[in-house]
Amino acid sequence: MSEKLVLYGFERSPPVRAVLLTLNALNLEFELIPVDTFKGEQNSEEHLKKNPAHTIPVLEVDGKYISDSHAIIAFLASKYGKDDSLYPKDLYQRATVDQRLHYENGVIFNETMKQRLRALFSSEQPQAAAEEAFKAVRDVYTVLEAYLNQNKYMAADHLTIADFSLLTTVTVLNLVVPVVADKWPKLTAWLENMKQLPYYEKANAKGLEALVEKFKPALEKLKQQKCDSEMGEKLVLYGFERSPPVRAVLLTLNALNLEFELIPVDTYKGEQNSEEHLKKNPAHTIPVLEVDGKYISDSHAIIAFLASKYGKDDSLYPKDLYQRAIVDQRLHYENGVIFNETMKQRLRPLLTSELPQAAVDEALKGISDVYTVLEAYLNQNKYMAADHLTIADFSLLTTVTVLNLIVPVVADKWPKLTAWLENMKQLPYYEKANAKGLKATEDVIKPILAKYKA
Fold it and tell me: In the record, which residues are listed under signal peptide (predicted)?
């Protein structure tokens, strides 16, 4: 190719990156001459001669100028493509690509990014404006998910220039409202697929990183506003603090610094069997979490939901499938073996009726066996499922502290479990989220505790 290609723009600009992706996909040689819009260089007399609309990018081809990224990438694919796959000649297929380009230009870049998000970056905006902007981003993702339900890529079952254009803006939106697989699975897969392009790093990631660095403080502020927006959902917890599963949820809510309302449901009085409660949870158990009129029951499901939806990162409930499986196993062990088998089947009868000494010994041995298993878990990690706090620790803490009332955890037998308990008690929310309800439990069973202590 003898024609000289000169691109005017800078890499932080999504439209410029769309052209960079296309140039690299076509393996074209070019010169990039910086035009920094943050410094107003697009308004210089020299640039206005190339593009009176004072925008970037501008492509120079042997002394001729083309502006607008969409027009440029269509030109490049049409003129230099080895075939027509990037910009099909078939009129219907081309119209589909063109529609995606116009959607990216009009709705995503101009309406969502420039009108809604730029205002959040540049000035203090009320929370209502932030929520409207975040909703607009989610709406964009939903539209793109629908496109990907039709094709593997955005406009066809193969790569087109529509993918390049959309990739550069979606990766910016993703900084503010992350694309998550449970809501937008095909969009998530498309993003990962696009990141595997051999020229992705130099043509998009480099400029994206520069953009992040430029707007780092503003991005942190936007993430906090997004968090505040999601936390605007009303959370209501049904249960009472003597219940270990309820306390596991209380620990999680406090760890995430979430506001919520606690509505008492006293299982000692059978309130979980009321008609009102059964509408929320037919299994007649506590806790139940209400999130804007939707109900979730079972503490393990609730705390996994809370950590996934409101966590600032995935440390409490890791996204890594192996790490998540370890957390899940600990939750099931707490549910099946500790709470149901050890506490409900073995210990509850000791508190409600006279049992032979053999049954007492068996119950106390069951507690010791639990401690031994937990000690083994702590030989692998600092906490129950990882070297950092996870929801598994919250779930296990609430039941272990009850068992500890009957069979004390002693350092000479279970040193790591002893240290873990002490460590957990240092959490700033331990007193209000666990100790308070635990004390109420102790007061109820205190008259019979002495009888069964090891």
Answer: none
